[in-house]
Design a protein that fits this description.
Layout lengths: L19 E5 L2 H11 L3 E3 L9 E5 L7 E5 L17 E7 L2 H13 L4 E6 L3 E7 L5 E7 L22
């Protein structure tokens, strides 16, 4: 089977996922989690907005993550199956050694790992941020088989063995 081809015939084409914006209860708590635990670089400066925000970048673009504080009384993310975001993924390396180091760091920081999976194209750990947003921390398995066979993304999930 040859490579899968994607056809763009609707007058536009998405070039990349630019950024995520998350509502959070406590900006300082989330700032510490995303900055100190996950290691994102925070953009500091005068944010001319009338509410508490924090922006982070891994250096790929102006910002990949923006957090907006909505307060402690905000409605929590409902448990179980629901419409909306399931999780977002953050690439943390290309080797299982790098993923093992991430797991050790998370354990030392007291972050609970809520899942782990071998997706064939990635090896993934799943955690939740302080507000319950699920995050996939993953490495791309080498060689990157999805480049020649994009359907490998849909391979059956297997238990992760680190």
């Amino acid at each position: 089977m040859g490579p899968v081809r994607f056809v763009f015939d609707r007058g536009m084409e998405v070039k990349e996922l630019g950024h995520l914006v998350l509502y959070v209860r406590d900006i300082e708590r989330s700032r510490r989690f995303y900055g100190e635990v996950l290691g994102w670089r925070e953009l500091r400066g005068d944010m001319s907005v009338p509410f508490p925000v924090a922006a982070f970048s891994a250096g790929r673009t102006h910002h990949e993550l923006l957090l907006i504080e909505v307060g402690a009384d905000a409605t929590p993310i409902p448990a179980g199956r629901r419409v909306g975001m399931y999780h977002f993924g953050l690439k943390v390396g290309d080797t299982d050694d790098e993923l093992r180091a991430v797991l050790e760091h998370l354990t030392e920081a007291g972050v609970k790992v809520v899942g782990s999976t071998d997706h064939t194209v990635t090896h993934s750990l799943y955690i939740e941020d302080p507000d319950g947003n699920e995050i996939e921390l993953y490495i791309d398995v080498q060689p990157e088989v999805w480049r020649d066979d994009p359907t490998a993304v849909f391979a059956p999930m297997k238990p992760l063995r680190l």
